[in-house]
Amino acid sequence: MMSPDPQPNVISNPLFSYWGHREKDYDTTLISEGYASAFKEEGSTLLVSFELKDADAKPFAAPLAEESGTSFLTILTDRQDWFREDTLFNYFDELTDQGFFDQFDQIVFFGVGMCGYAAAAFSVVAPGSTVVAIAPQATLDPTFASWDMRFRNKRRLDFTSRYGYAPKMVQGADKVFVIYDPSHQEDAIHAALFSGPNVALLKCSLHGHSAEADLEMIGALTEIVDAACEGEMSKPTYHQIMRSRRRSKPYAVTLLRKLRGQGRDKLAARLAAWASRRYDQTYFRDQLDEMEGREPRSAV
């Protein structure tokens, strides 16, 4: 199977730290000083992920794809420039010219936030693909997004050239799933810019910017991406996944933390009381005691 040009000698680059001494298992490419890719062929489904390199985090797609027998192409960066670099554009142009994406029966693009923007924007290289983007930005071009004050120092980036306006780039995709927290105004507006018969806007309430970590904590993120790779992702599937996870202890912990952080202690106390009965956990009893002004029982 045709693959990105491998460069085994670049595995020592910090961007590849997760792969360590397993370079023989992957085709690795240093695209530019701040961008790299890792590819592994496993099957006829390809998961294309865009991920921000974190010193304490391992890539999301690689272990998931390897466990499920899915091929993956991960684009790694340690920069906060929304993947707006000509060398990266050229990299995807070359993959397209080589017919790389034509070799797969099913292609899923995945990313979160800035990386969710990239997943949507670069999905244009594979018409008929599926996109799963969590809290993506549609663009940071002030012509369309002057209301988003979070990234004002990034407005100098060019979002008008190739792979630019993400909602336009997904028009050729088969299915586009945009997961966002409706209580977070900026994310909700960006999500609303994605429209069309192939777009499903999926609400993920009370998660905000930590949606990825929270969904991963309750085990929903892997299920969502797996469903997309299996061609089974849909609105009903998403809601079924989320309903089942809302009965889990990790979800109760996450929700309690969110409610307390928002100062909604009355609702948080009701949740803590319910969870302490259901799960018989000291954590929930201690949280309830603290909110009601009592000494946590675990400290007595």
Structural description of this entry:
The chain has 300 residues and is an alpha/beta fold. 37% of the residues lie in helices and 17% in strands. The chain has an eight-stranded mixed beta sheet, with helices on both faces. The chain starts with 26 loop residues before the first strand and ends in a 9-residue tail after the last helix.
- The SSE string, one letter per element, is EEEHEHEHEHHEHEHHHHHH
SS element count, helices: 12
- Taken as a percent bin, the fraction of beta residues is 15-25%
User: Ends: how far apart?
Assistant: 63 Å
Strand order of the largest sheet: 1-2-4-3-5-6-7-8
Morphology: globular
Q: Which regions contain 5 or more consecutive residues with pLDDT less than 50?
A: none
- How many β-strand stretches? 8
How many domains?
2
DSSP helix fraction: 25-40%
Label the CATH architecture of the largest domain.
3-Layer(aba) Sandwich
CATH class of the largest domain: Alpha Beta
**From the helix content, strand content and strand pairing, which structural class follows?**
alpha/beta
Biggest sheet character: 8 strands, mixed
Q: What name goes with the CATH superfamily of the largest domain? A: Alpha/Beta hydrolase fold, catalytic domain
Rg measurement, Å: 21 Å
Summed over residues and divided by their number, the pLDDT gives a mean of 86
Protein name: Phosphoadenosine phosphosulfate reductase
Name its key features:
300 residues, alpha/beta, Rossmann fold, eight-stranded mixed beta sheet, 12 helices, 8 strands, 37% helix
Please describe the topology of this protein:
Elements: E1 27-32, E2 35-40, E3 45-52, H1 61-68, E4 71-77, H2 86-98, E5 106-112, H3 114-122, E6 130-134, H4 142-145, H5 166-169, E7 175-180, H6 185-192, E8 199-203, H7 211-217, H8 220-229, H9 235-245, H10 249-261, H11 265-279, H12 282-291
Helix pairs in contact: 8-9, 10-11, 11-12
Protein name: Phosphoadenosine phosphosulfate reductase
